Amino acid sequence: MFNFGEVLDLPLIWGGLIALSVFIYVLLDGFDLGCGILFPFAGSDKNRSRIMNSIAPFWDGNETWLVLGGGGLFAAFPAAYGIIMTGLYLPVTFMLFGLILRGVAFEFRFKSHNRRFIWDYCFHIGSIIAAFMQGVMLGALVQGLDVQDRLYAGGPFDWFTPFALLCGVAIIIGYGLLGATWLIIKSEDKLQGWARKTATRLLLAFIASMIAVSVAMLFLNVDATSEWLTFPTLLYLAPMPLIVAALAYVMHRDLGGKREYRPFLLTVGMFFMGYVGLCSAFYPYIVPYAMTMHEAAAADTSLSFMLIGAGLMLPVILSYTGYAYYVFKGKATHEHLY
Hints:
The protein is an all-alpha fold. It has a single domain, classed as Formate dehydrogenase/DMSO reductase fold (Up-down Bundle), CATH 1.20.1630. It has 14 helices and 4 strands. A two-stranded antiparallel sheet has the order 1-2. The protein has a two-stranded antiparallel sheet with strand order 3-4. Helix 4 crosses helix 5 and helix 11 packs antiparallel against helix 12. The protein is globular and about 55 Å long. It starts with 9 loop residues before the first helix and ends in an 11-residue tail after the last helix.
């Protein structure tokens, strides 16, 4: 069998594929989690039905990317998977509980009448739990995990820190912004007007949360920031806050106008800038500051074999995802469609 490892840097390629899967998941599941976060504040049952119908064709497909990212980590970097999952076992469990709760709420809300409010709250609470725990896990990884002899050596609650909690709140705000801009695309009239006002408020909160997290990282003096203020890293990172500020300015103007698609795309751009900064801080580690991609990678023969499968399946996943968004384009209604 041909070994791609002889001509390709397979750990780097797999690290890139996992990073891509996680980013796509954050964007796609981020807006439907954001819709759940905003769900109780929509003003009427019909508006809540419109919100749910706007994401009903997509929400379960969006979570494909979470499975792909987690499965890819397990297969390509088994040592890293063992460390990360051991250290973050509780927040991962809470996140999955939140995703299950909102999935059940999806199914039952459309069939329930007298007790629909119960499933409304389940959908909202499940979305908040899932989003918050994703931010907590991100914060814990930024701070770094205690690793000794390629095993997790910390305690079960090491992830529970003020910085991780701050990251959890920031992710809730960011997902709320994604959800609000998604609703601008999928709604009209009063619901769209409400989504525009909500997005305007969340935009300011999102920028403030990004600043707060960045400043907190500097004061934490974690390894991720050790090279931020040194050359040549400073030259690469310096334009990023300016780009985010420009995107936020344009988006603020768009929210007061009639544009529908661009606010969502600008939000994606801000997430992308933050994600690039995060990946640059982590590189070349797969377990931050403890284990690099090459140290944690599986054998080249395994990575080569899986790369063939990924090369065949990724275009299929991207194709059916794009087709689903094309088929279900247009405005959402409050009619029973699920």
